[in-house]
Specification:
single chain, mainly alpha, 2 strands, about 80% helix
């Protein structure tokens, strides 16, 4: 097999891994609905604990202990991984709460906005450069958020918390450059003790879901570890084997599925203002994606705190 064929095969494999991860994330609301009777905070504790157990098994199978041991010796990296654990746990809690309180549409908006928040953080923190099209995309998304805020009479905090926490999580992961298995194992390790003690306290007092619910509910709770870890690991494989631009296209599968589930399956209210708001966000996403892959070109770029320069546009 020549190099071109190998490259094409790898690209195809990466696209399949990425697609699989986003489809799983898109289907997650259905899983959380099966556990709707379990309080959100207890679901979060089980998700953290069983994710850690799954990651320990993955590390044992893949022989990744050396990478974990080497990371433990880096105090700065450990501190950042602790923040990652806190951020992703908060993200998971808000997401579970949103699904189980019939706010799937708000959750989907958060993940539509997330890529643009990532870009904004890249500009502000990493001093990355945006071209005019990419800046236009962020402005359109901001208008979409403003519309729904005015319609609600309050800030859509669920969408903004989900978008912001996951964007900050990704920013830290990018800055510390740690492999996905090691990173996820350490993240869950830091927050696992609190989750385990919370579950133990509930179960010992007779109020825990595993002790008072059916065997099927207990199995679903254990399964939260798999449905949390699997898409993250598939996503990592996708990133490894295909271009970031392709992953950018695939990224919108999950929030689109969440929106569909919220409107069609869960019969959540979708008003004209929702439609108008999402239209601005979608327009921003389309423009941003086309600009990021070079279809839309701008004569110069804009960086926060810098003068405009006549140069070829660079991806954020």
């Amino acid at each position: 097999m020549d190099l071109s064929a190998k490259s094409t095969e790898r690209e195809r494999a990466g696209m399949l891994y990425g697609t699989a991860s986003f489809i799983l994330w898109g289907l997650l609301p259905l899983y959380w609905k099966l556990l709707q009777a379990v309080p959100s905070i207890e679901l979060l504790a089980h998700r953290i604990f069983w994710s850690f157990i799954v990651m320990v098994i993955v590390v044992l199978v893949t022989g990744g202990w050396k990478k974990i041991v080497s990371s433990v010796g880096d105090k700065k990296k450990l501190l950042l991984m602790f923040f990652c654990g806190v951020l992703i746990s908060g993200n998971w809690f808000v997401y579970i709460m949103a699904v189980n309180t019939d706010q799937v549409i708000a959750a989907s908006m958060g993940y539509f906005i997330n890529p643009l928040v990532v870009v904004l953080l890249g500009v502000i923190v990493l001093k990355e450069v945006l071209n005019r099209w990419q800046l236009t995309a962020i402005i359109l998304a901001a208008i979409g958020v403003l519309i729904v805020s005015l319609q609600y009479g309050k800030i859509p905090w669920i969408a903004l918390v989900l978008a912001g926490s996951f964007a900050l999580y990704g920013l830290i992961k990018k800055m510390i450059k740690i492999d996905p298995v090691t990173g996820l194992t350490l993240e869950t390790l830091f927050v696992m003790p609190a989750a385990f003690l919370f579950i133990l306290n509930l179960e010992s007092g007779g109020g825990g879901a595993m002790g008072s619910s059916s065997l099927l509910t207990s199995l679903f709770l254990i399964g939260t570890g798999v449905i949390t870890s699997a898409p993250l690991l598939l996503y990592a494989k996708g990133i490894e084997n295909t271009t970031f631009s392709m992953i950018g296209f695939l990224q919108y599968i999950a929030p689109s599925m969440k929106l569909f589930l919220g409107v069609i399956v869960f019969n959540e209210y979708f008003s004209f203002y929702h439609f108008l708001s999402f239209s601005f966000i979608w327009a921003g996403l389309v423009i941003f994606t086309l600009a990021n892959v070079g279809v839309l070109k701008a004569p110069y770029s804009v960086a926060v705190g810098q003068e405009e320069k006549n140069e070829a546009p660079r991806g954020a």
